[in-house]
């Protein structure tokens, strides 16, 4: 299907992409949101309980994501299924190439594809994915009801996952490589109050072992934790592989851009977790979406008058 030249193509339908869509649509721009395998508004759907989004305490992550999406849909935002994997530009028009061979043209691109789960890189991890190794407690936790599980990591994701699993599992080990946690102290306190949670700090995972499925998480100090499930929550990696040579990335692979979401490439804007920033939260992603849409609208206005 051939499409008309768009004002803005938004890549990614997480909080940043949807916020950008709402702002761009309200600015009367012609837009489309491209998303790969929609499963509920990106990473946010993997959070059981979001307790720090202003005005909506204790909301379920999936429900918050659906509310964002409904808002965009009510304004008439259209979605397109596709994995963007190539970018080129000719005479102020971006061509975005998709894995299925389609190309969509737009005067501006807002890239808000977020980040993917980082792998731990230890023995057994790859072998047992789907057989006891998971990256999403909210998605897979129910499989471990009444069993023992380990969560690896010390950020908010790991703390939230351990809390979530403590209501399902017999016992939960939270394994963190340092003494101090990166995640919020209130979650650490809640975990300490749980009878079935054992917090193991200064512990580095060495190997995930098992037979058909996982039976143990082995630590470098020689300890072996008898678990059926290992939940890896060691941070995220930005989805920027296809942007190398197109737009400036920082040392860790995030897109270099300030609060205005303007990147090194004219007409290409970065919003959400994929952008260099100090605080990656839903509220900062939503804020980025608004800033990116406004920056894109200003850019399009300048193009018209050139
Ligand atoms: P994160 O904050 O980057 O934390 C990653 C954790 O994994 C760190 O504790 C890190 O240890 C550990 N780690 C990294 N590589 C490791 C390795 N090879 N072996 C062992 N441990 C390793 O990532 P996140 O928890 O996914 O959170 C990402 C962002 O989303 C954060 O800004 C977070 O606040 C936010 N978030 C918010 C909520 C919420 O508000 N409800 C929920 C989830 C996430 P070190 O600490 O030693 O580096």
Structural class comes to: alpha/beta
Helix fraction by DSSP (H/I, runs of at least 4): 10-25%
Report how far the terminal alpha carbons are from each other: 31 Å
Radius of gyration: 21 Å
What is the N-to-C succession of helices and strands?
Answer: EHEHEEEEEEHEHEHEEEEEEEH
Q: Mean pLDDT, nearest integer?
A: 95
Number of helices: 6
- What small molecules accompany the polymer chains? NADP nicotinamide-adenine-dinucleotide phosphate
Number of strands: 17
Low-confidence stretches: none
* Strand content range: 25-35%
Biggest sheet overview: 7 strands, mixed
User: What shape does the CA trace take?
Assistant: elongated
Give short descriptive properties of this protein:
306 residues, alpha/beta, 7-stranded mixed β-sheet, 6 helices, 17 strands, elongated, binds NADP nicotinamide-adenine-dinucleotide phosphate
Structural description of this entry:
With 306 residues, the chain is an alpha/beta fold. It has helices at 15-26, 61-74, 137-140, 156-166, 185-192, 282-305; strands spanning 6-11, 31-35, 79-81, 84-90, 93-98, 103-111, 115-117, 133-134, 148-152, 171-175, 197-200, 205-210, 214-219, 224-226, 229-232, 236-238, 268-270. The strands form four sheets. Strands 1, 2, 3, 4, 5, 6 and 17 form a seven-stranded mixed β-sheet that branches. Strand 12 and strand 13 (214-219) form a beta hairpin. The two termini are 31 Å apart. The mean pLDDT is 95. Bound molecules: NADP nicotinamide-adenine-dinucleotide phosphate.
């Amino acid at each position: 299907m051939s499409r008309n030249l768009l004002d803005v193509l938004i890549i990614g339908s997480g909080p940043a992409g949807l916020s950008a869509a709402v702002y761009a649509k309200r600015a009367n721009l012609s837009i489309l949101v491209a998303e790969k395998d929609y499963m509920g508004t990106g990473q946010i759907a993997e959070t059981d309980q979001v307790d720090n989004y202003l005005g909506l305490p204790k909301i379920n992550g999936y429900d918050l994501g659906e509310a964002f999406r409904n808002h965009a849909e009510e304004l008439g935002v259209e979605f397109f299924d596709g994995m963007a994997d190539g970018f080129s530009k000719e005479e102020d028009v971006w061509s975005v190439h998709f894995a299925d061979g389609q190309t969509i043209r737009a005067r501006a691109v807002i890239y808000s594809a977020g980040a993917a789960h980082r792998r731990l890189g230890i023995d057994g991890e790859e072998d047992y994915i789907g057989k006891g190794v998971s990256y999403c407690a909210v998605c897979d936790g129910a499989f471990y009801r009444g069993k023992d599980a380990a969560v690896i990591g010390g950020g908010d994701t790991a703390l939230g996952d351990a809390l979530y699993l403590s209501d399902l599992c017999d016992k939960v080990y939270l394994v963190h490589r340092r003494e101090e946690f990166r995640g919020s102290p209130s979650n650490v306190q809640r975990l300490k109050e749980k009878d079935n949670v054992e917090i193991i700090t200064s512990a580095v995972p060495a190997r995930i072992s098992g037979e058909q499925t996982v039976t143990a998480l082995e630590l470098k100090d020689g300890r072996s934790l008898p678990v059926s499930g290992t939940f890896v929550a060691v941070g995220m990696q930005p989805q920027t592989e296809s942007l190398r040579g197109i737009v400036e990335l920082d040392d860790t692979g995030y897109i270099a851009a300030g609060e205005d979401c303007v990147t090194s490439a004219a007409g290409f804007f970065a919003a959400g977790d994929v952008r260099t920033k100090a605080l990656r939260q839903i509220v900062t992603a939503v804020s980025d979406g608004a800033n990116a849409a406004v920056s894109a609208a200003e850019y399009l206005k300048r193009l018209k008058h050139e």
